[in-house]
Input
Amino acid sequence: HSFPTRRSSDLKKDPNKPKRGLSAFLFFGKEVRADVIKTELKGDGSKVTEVMKAIGARWAKMDAKGKEKFEKLSEADKARYEKEIAEYKKNSGGDDDDDDDEEDEE
Output
């Protein structure tokens, strides 16, 4: 027998749900990405895996003092997410009373 399975494409994501907090590494990546592409990849930012490897190598070389700034940003973003998700859950998953123009975009 074959049983119906749920695919992730069948489950609709709620566009009002808050985005998760970014990690310290992602904050670091946003800050150094352009420099990494310019210096280490000679302007070729087309290969995402190469860019991320170079950023990862820089992150690995950093000491705790250097990472501190990004960890603080990450903690602040995590607090923002926790506050927003609590508000979201309190409103039973988003009441759709905000200004979504979804109906008007057809």
Q: What stands out?
A: The helical segments are 24-39, 48-61, 64-90. Residues 63 and 69 are 11 Å apart (CA to CA).
